[in-house]
Amino acid sequence: MPQLDMPSLLLILLALLGVVSRNQSITIAAVVLLLIRTLGLHQAFPWIEKNGLSLGIIILTIGILTPLASGTISAKELYQSFLHWKSIAAIGVGVLVAYLGGRGAHLMSSSPALVTSLVIGTILGVAFFKGVPVGPLIAAGILSLLVAK
User: Fold this and answer.
1) 138 vs 149: CA distance, rounded Å
2) pLDDT tens digits, residue range 47-103?
3) I need a surface site. Which of 70, 94, 108, 138 has the fewest CB within 10 A?
4) DSSP state of 134
5) What is the pTM of this model?
6) Residue (of 134, 129, 142) closest to 52 by Cα position
7) Residues 6+ apart with CB under 8 A from 26
């Protein structure tokens, strides 16, 4: 029986944490990465590290734009959203979050040592607070404001 290395043990721990916290995102992500390790497909890791975030953002954006594409949100509803204060506040918050995400992406690329801490914080937020794993970008954006980069 092969010995498990530390990354595999951590992925198993994360998968279990995802199961216990009933968070499918963390469970599926950990199991997929564990399968890649187990199947010896280590050459995929650099590609995933380089493109995974962009691919994830593209998939997330597709999910966000789907109601527009499917017609679930009509042009009239879209227009009316600019007339209600809650919708205008939502637009402002969306702009702020996009700005923070942009700052976060820059900080993560310029200070890779911080990525590990941000990922740990995101894992804890996903596992214990029913969060969604888009946190590292926003967390890095907030952090960039705090560290004035």
Assistant:
1) 15
2) 988 888 788 888 988 998 899 899 998 888 888 888 888 888 888 988 898 888 888
3) 70
4) T
5) 0.66
6) 134
7) 14, 15, 17, 18, 123, 126, 127, 133
